[in-house]
Design a protein that fits this description.
The protein has about 350 residues and is of the alpha+beta class. The protein is about 20% helix and about 35% strand. The strands form 7 sheets. Strands 2-1-5-4-3 form a 5-stranded antiparallel beta sheet, with helices on both faces. A 4-stranded antiparallel beta sheet has the order 10-11-17-15, covered by helices on one side. It has a two-stranded antiparallel sheet with strand order 6-7. α2 (about 75-95) crosses α4 (about 105-115). The model is unreliable at about 150-155 (pLDDT under 50).
Length: about 350
């Protein structure tokens, strides 16, 4: 059983604090922050122990979702529960950040009342909770970018929605329900891990990808997704003319794979909210060049006892595309000075 659940900002402010069993230590949030500060950066383990009390936490978008539990509770169960809580909050608030939690604190407390009863998880389904939630979400004001229109085949127009188009709650107010569009958003997210030698050659490369869907469709209709017809799965499959090769692929439990083997078509009745349709893994030679090239220059100054490291990044993506939120991190020893 879970004793307490609270949500903290990156500065340590307590945004939400829900005590289910009234048996947790006093000042649990302050104790957790003190323990967290003992670990530099994001290196704190997901489970922290303080005087017989255990703090299980995850970090999502600079928010800490923390639970206090007793020693006889499985930490993996609590981590999965916290992940689902964060997903539910994102579905009902539209976005998951500090401002959204502050504006919708009444809605978040209502969600926490429904997902757990006296420390026992009950229901973490976005669609299943909809019948019990009465508060309307307060939308976070963001800069709405206009979509782009490009010419396609035979004069057809390809309309591309901005990246913020899906940042809206699944639960709409009564006025919004009259004008709300029946739409669905699909995002393909890939994480590229590359080990590059000093001479610039690629030593090892891996891609972990996922296909995320956020549905605002009424009635949960059947949706079909068509994948590449030349798709092959498995390291041993090297068919003639194969252009897309995946080492492994995992599908959502509700995906119908009846047409996948023959035509590479998958079907699903999408639940409301955001969910992952499939995950895949690719290793070995990459199907396309790297989007960035990294060049390093190391200069050692023995007379001053200094080591100067210069890092240069060259972007090789097409001119029509652009990269956002690019962050470069260079791990250095603790004794390093500016």
């Amino acid at each position: 059983m879970l004793s307490q659940l609270f949500i903290l900002s990156s500065r340590g402010d307590t945004l939400v604090d829900k005590d289910y069993r009234c048996d947790s230590v006093k000042g649990a949030a302050e104790i957790f922050l003190e323990k967290l500060q003992e670990h530099k950066g994001d290196q704190a383990p997901p489970v922290l122990e303080v005087d017989g009390s255990f703090f299980v936490h995850i970090k999502c978008n600079d928010l800490y979702f923390v639970c206090t539990v007793k020693p006889n509770v499985s930490p993996f169960t609590v981590l999965e529960f916290l992940l689902r809580i964060s997903n539910v909050c994102k579905d009902y608030c539209g976005v998951l950040n500090e401002e959204a939690i502050r504006l919708n604190f009444a809605l978040v407390y209502e969600l926490l009342d429904e997902v757990m009863d006296f420390g026992c998880p009950q229901n973490t389904s976005t669609e299943g909770l909809k019948a019990y939630i009465q508060n309307d979400p307060v939308l976070v004001k963001v800069d709405r970018q206009a979509g782009t229109v490009s010419s396609g085949l035979f004069g057809a127009d390809h309309r591309i929605a901005p990246s913020t188009a899906a940042n809206k709650p699944v639960s709409a107010s009564r006025q919004e329900q009259l004008t709300r569009k029946n739409e669905i958003f699909v995002d393909v997210i890939e994480r590229l891990t590359v080990l590059i030698a000093a001479n610039g050659n690629i030593v090892r490369s891996e891609i972990d990808g996922s296909m995320l869907v956020k549905s605002f469709l009424l009635g949960s209709p059947k949706i079909k997704f068509g994948l590449n017809e030349d798709l092959s799965v498995g390291k041993s499959s090297h068919g003639y003319g194969t252009q897309v090769r995946l080492d492994s692929i995992n599908f959502h439990q509700n995906v119908d794979l009846e047409e996948f083997d023959n035509s590479k078509i998958i079907s699903i009745h999408p639940p409301e909210g955001e969910f992952t349709v499939l995950k895949y893994h690719i290793s070995g030679e990459l199907p396309s060049p790297l989007p960035f090239q990294v060049f390093s220059l190391i200069e050692e100054m023995e007379e001053k006892g200094q080591l100067i490291v210069r890092i240069k990044i060259q972007c090789d993506i097409p001119v029509k595309d652009y990269a956002v939120n690019v962050v470069c991190r260079l791990p250095v020893p603790k004794s390093t000075t500016e």
